[in-house]
Amino acid sequence: MCRLIVHMKNTYNSNSENQKKEFESNTVNPNDYELPVICDVDILRTLIRKNAARIVDVRKEEEYREGHIPTAVSLPLAQLLSKDSPEGVIDILENIGVSDKLPVIVYDDTFGALGARVAWTFQYVGHTNTSLLEVTFSRWKDLGLEIEKQANKYPKTTHHISINQGIYADASYVEGAKESDNKVLVDSRERLNFLSEHIPGAKNIPYTMLGSDGNILRKPSEIKRFIENRGLSPESEYITYCGSVGTLSGLTYYALKLAGIKNVKLYAKSFREWKSMGKPKEEFKDANYWDLSAE
Amino acid sequence: MKRTPTHGSKYRNVSPPKPNPRWGREEETEIFAQQVKRFRQGKLSEDDFRRFRLQHGAYGSRLQLNYSMVRIKIPSGEINPEQLEKIANLSESFSIGSAHVSTRQNIQLHWVQLEDVSEVMRGLVEVGLTTREACGNTVRNVMCSHYAGVCPDEAFDATPYSKAIARFFIRNPMCQNLPRKFKINFACCKDHGLVRIADIGLIPMIRDERRGFRIYLGGGLGAASFIGHPLEDFTSEERVLPTCMAAVRLFDRHGNRENMARNRMRYLVHEMGWEKFQKMVLKERSIVEMTTAVSTARLFEVKGLEGFNQPIETKFSHSLTKLPVINDHVTPESTKYERWLRTNVVPQKQAGYFTIFVTLEAGDITANQLRTLSGAIRELSIEGVARNTPQQNFAIRYVKGEDLQEFHDRLMSIGLGSSGALTITSAVGCSGTTSCNLAITNSHRLAKEVQRKFLEMGYDTDEELRDSTIKVSGCPNSCGQHEIATIGFFGGASRIGDAMAPTYTMLFGGSAGEHGELGKAIMRVPARKVIDTIKEIIKIYKNEKHDGQTLSQWINRIVKGEGTRQIRNVEDMKRLLLGITHLPPIEKEPESYKDYGNDVKFTAKTARGECAA
């Protein structure tokens, strides 16, 4: 029944169907399996069965203890952020038993945003074979899929550090991007926050546009259409940012990757840092739009 | 369209209402996306694009044309849970996470990026909704009293006629380029419905056992407002369509296409004189009747649009319509539920059934509230749909007496259990400076402030205030319908020395319904003093009233110069309010020079109104 549900919904990776079949029929060494941008439930379950991936649960530790996806380890986002140097992250990867090529799949229960920030960080320090699970934990549970309670620990590994500068942006990079026609700055915050103030020249793609019923991200074709509607080119470089630590914009990072955009960077320190540095902002004060919210 | 699901409802054996017609069309969303691209590429002029955009229901946002207000037409105000849930999702994805119920039974999504409007339209089409001709110079959303079908005083249910008219005119070539917008409102009875302030207003009547309507023409609110004129005593049902077509055709031929400020049909009627216009309409109707193809006339098909066909005895009996649980009087100390029962629930003509009003603040509702509300409608309304009201609330009908408590509990769980929906506390406010180019003041926030303050003061429990209304517009153009309020306000600016202050012109004595009258302008009130001024008026009223007069009755007497004791007329009233409405210089009272929602000094900024485009 569960598998039926999984098969009935649209999978993200129709172009990787062959790869998946090959993989499931055991012709590929699971440890060499290269994950797609977003990992669907089928692939994850196969990887679990073959014990060939590290699954990372970024929810709070209490939540992990109450039940998690089988074989997952606990790595709350806060823990990662407290060690947010490349060496610190490598340390974390080694401690959860991740070697250079092992597939790593991250999930959360916060519509993908926390997971996205963790997954991006792994990729940044050099663990490219990282993917986000297509659903949240709640959805996994609602689908009636397996859950276990035991805390998992794996033997320590070694992991090389290899900074992936191509997916990283800092404030000065963002500032410089303004000059280029070929760079698109994307603000992932909700509309009212964006209207109030944003980095000059930014385009608003609120993270609320990205999810769909049940999945953390819509179909790639839909995200592509949103980009096209905005008259933006998929060939451009995209830099995403949000309000504080790069979670919402982390999700946007993965949405853009999923839509097939090659060059995406995350400005992880986002608008909070930008403001604290006293950098220029665009504001819109001619309307009282906040008063339209019923919150 | 999918039928309203009944699974999960306690009332499985009851047939669901007939589905709404599918108003939306998928190809229009594609075309819209294309046109936005062409406009951005400079291949479509700004004027042409604006016309196109408005025809498809996307209004420019305040001083920010890169954003739109997407106006979703809800013909007759009838909307099913699936549609409400879709609007919830769309508001979260592409708007601000809240939707807004307008005074003409539309639901608006604000601050949608122009490039995403086609996505919103795409979602709406999936559930049968449309934004087509929600703005622009067309026949706008056709309204129908939210009591139609359940009103004890109605001759028959006007809803199917209202839907049929909407269906006939939408996308109809005859009204794609009118001189100006055109509004049609259906009532259920002489009291409920806005028939005198529309281009065409219709009240159902039965004459010699035949169905028909009394039709009013040439009314409307705006910078200059007029009350509609009765065309004839009785218009039989088969003449409804020809009459409406005749009015639209005359307006199309003779309406003023030069002067945007005076091009609604009411000006044509006013300038021509009613008698002349009336004759022209009757003559035009004969021509329409003689020349309209049978196939065209058949497009107006009332059958098949009949509403919920409920199986229960519908004989109206006053003895059976008392609200359960509660006596007639509540106080601010009564429980929330008792207060709500008294002020938000009315019995229907169908014995044992009630209509619930959901109290919103100036029509705003969050996505999550919409979702929970949808669940409640599905499970607790036998009719299974909602109607939005010109008071910017939702009416949920066909709720059984024993389910009222459950309904209220669910509303409480999402912060919508407030009382006062049918009382003076439920203030109406247009969107004002929150999103409208024409607005001078933040009428939207003011309406919310009035409602919060008056609920806190328990005004909703005061029977003498119950039939009074407060309505606020952010400019003279009357989207807040201030001219039909007992106490109405429209926004402006006053200069004192070098400083500008947000102020409102206060009107007294407006009312809706067949005998509705327009309010009379009394005096200016600084925005920050509106609430205190209303409180002062109520205080004076409490001292002056006699013979059980309600506030609205008392105010109507004063407007006519027939007051008693200290206050005989408007001049007496003004004198008493001079103190409280006084605006001292900015140095003495800097707060009065800031509008609600602003921490900076007020400036009156407006841009071109798109209404007239």
Q: Outline of this structure?
A:
With 295 residues, chain A is of the alpha/beta class.
Topology:
The complex is a heterodimer of chains A (about 300) and B (about 625).
Chain A (H helix, E strand, L loop, with lengths): L1 H7 L8 H8 L13 E2 L1 H9 L4 E4 L3 H5 L7 E2 L2 H6 L3 H10 L8 E4 L5 H13 L4 E4 L3 H6 L28 H7 L5 E5 L3 H6 E2 L4 E2 L15 H10 L7 E5 L6 H11 L5 E3 L3 H7 L5 E2 L12
Parallel strand pairs in A: 1-5, 2-3, 2-4, 4-5, 6-8, 6-9, 9-10
Antiparallel strand pairs in A: 7-11
Helix pairs in contact in A: 6-7, 7-12
Chain B lengths: L25 H15 L5 H10 L2 E4 L2 E10 L4 E2 L1 H14 L3 E4 L4 E8 L3 H10 L16 E2 L14 H11 L14 E3 L13 E8 L2 E8 L11 E2 L4 E2 L3 H15 L10 H8 L1 H18 L2 H4 L38 H9 E3 L5 E6 L5 E3 H14 L5 E3 L5 E7 L3 H10 L14 E2 L13 H14 L13 E4 L13 E10 L2 E10 L11 E7 L3 H15 L6 H9 L10 H12 L32
Parallel strand pairs in B: 6-7, 7-8, 17-18, 18-19
Antiparallel strand pairs in B: 1-2, 2-5, 3-15, 4-5, 4-14, 8-9, 9-10, 9-11, 12-13, 13-16, 15-16, 19-20, 20-21
Helix pairs in contact in B: 1-2, 1-4, 3-4, 3-11, 6-8, 7-8, 11-12
